[in-house]
Write a structure and sequence with these properties.
Elements (H helix, E strand, L loop, with lengths): L4 E4 L4 H12 L2 H7 L9 H13 L3 E7 L5 E8 L9 E7 L8 H15 L4 E7 L3 H9 L3 E7 L6 E8 L2
Parallel strand pairs: 4-5
Antiparallel strand pairs: 1-2, 2-3, 3-4, 5-7, 6-7
Length: 166
């Protein structure tokens, strides 16, 4: 199994171009989220959205890279949710050409291990209700639905999921 590394997004033009390609390679996600047209993902909007995320207290925007230093995934993590105090995965996106190769599973495991190592007992995320593939993915990794509600930024219907880490 080839190694994966996680590093903060530095917002260089080259990284932003790769991240735009990452979004464009996931048209189903783009359609479900409704934020970007997968045919024309605007680099300036992606950069602005990710800068806002990275500038939020306790948030990290991380790039997953393979052994050739290519960006294969994107993670947005929140150290402590203001409402429940749990760490959250805000986004885990794998390049569309690499789906079903176990990268999402490996990235999720890296995040779980990181928060477990920090002594955290649980981790949460929200899946858009109109994204059944994502719900199936997270359920297969042992995550359980704990709530349904509108997400904070856009008000889209979501399924809140939790995984015990202890």
């Amino acid at each position: 199994m080839s190694p994966l590394s996680l590093s903060p997004l530095r917002f260089s033009p080259e990284e932003i171009a790769e991240v735009v390609g990452l979004y464009a390679s996931n048209p189903e996600y783009c359609r479900a989220a409704g934020e970007y047209d997968p045919e024309r993902v605007p680099a300036d909007s992606v950069e602005a959205d990710l800068r806002e995320e990275a500038d939020t207290e306790g948030c990290e925007v991380l790039l997953a890279r393979d052994e050739q230093d290519r960006i294969v995934g994107l993670l947005c993590l929140l150290d402590r949710h203001p409402t429940d105090g749990h760490p959250w995965i805000g986004l885990l996106l794998v390049h569309g050409s690499l789906h079903r190769l176990g990268l999402g599973r490996r990235l999720a495991s890296l995040v779980e291990e990181r928060f477990r190592h920090e002594g955290r007992d649980g981790l949460r995320l929200a899946v858009l209700e109109n994204n059944p593939a994502a719900l199936a993915f997270w359920s297969s990794l042992g995550w359980h639905e704990i709530d349904r509600r509108a997400e904070r930024k856009y008000g889209r219907p979501c399924i809140v999921m939790h995984k015990r880490l202890a």
